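Need the bound structure for 2,6-diaminopimelic acid, inputs here:
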Amino acid sequence: MAIRFTKMHGSGNDFVVIDSRDGALALDVAVIRAMADRHTGIGFDQLLSVEPARDGSSAFYYGIWNGDGSPSGQCGNGVRCVAAWLHRAGALPLGETVRIQSPSGPVAVRMLDAHQVTVDMGEPIFDPARIPFDAPHVTNRYVLDVDGQPVEIGAVSMGNPHAVVVEDAVSSKAMARLGPALTAHPRFREGANAGFVQKLSRQHLRLFVHERGAGWTQACGTGACAAMAVLRHRGEVDERVQVDLPGGSLHIEWSGPGQTLWMTGPAAFVFEGEWLDPQRDD
Ligand SMILES: N[C@H](CCC[C@H](N)C(=O)O)C(=O)O
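Answer from helper R.:
Posting the output first, comments after.
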């Protein structure tokens, strides 16, 4: 079966976007993993499907799968690309705010221009039971045992689970080991995206993320939201923060508990193509 797709990226976090507004898409894990392969497939961090709305108040629903085939509840860079894709398809006028349903709930997107998107990401969730993260109650800091070593983290959900390590200078060797270890830590029973954030000032962060289901990525939108939210919750950053990731910068705005968090950043088109089922013999 041939599947048409659009290749996109948000600050270097790359995606395949598939039009399933007719609701007909049915992909199994094996096909997603084959498409994700950067040698024998298309290559992507996540696959995003644009589907008919599943509730009365959203314009569309979008599905999210990591390159390893695992599902996710939210994708910050991805939903900006879905918004730009809808705009290019004539389904989202510039400046109009539209609700898009995701597996973890609705977000609201607005095209500032053809390549910059601002997203109401909802309120960061610190309740361990909703992250999910194994802890008796909410605190600003948790200490995990990683291979016998104590590691201090913040834990938060943006519709997907995040472990945030705040370090002044994370050695790349330590980070290379800690990223996968935190992603697979048993206290995150559904896994976690592991962010390593350096505070350059109260308005400026540098972030590296080892993503659940995708590994180290050029950028992680929910990771940028999570890192800012953890530091804001500790009172260590202002309500408007620039987050620099290897692939680009995102702008996060959150005044605090009870308020919604906004993320603004780019969305870029790369190419369009057709996935040919590798089993086809023609
Ligand atoms: N790996 C994530 C999903 C993609 C998140 C990231 N690409 C973003 O921009 O937020 C997870 O399994 O929760």
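Comments: The pocket of 2,6-diaminopimelic acid is lined by residues 13, 45-46, 66, 72, 75-78, 160, 193, 211-214, 220-222 (CB under 6 Å). Residues 38 and 44 are 7 Å apart (CA to CA).
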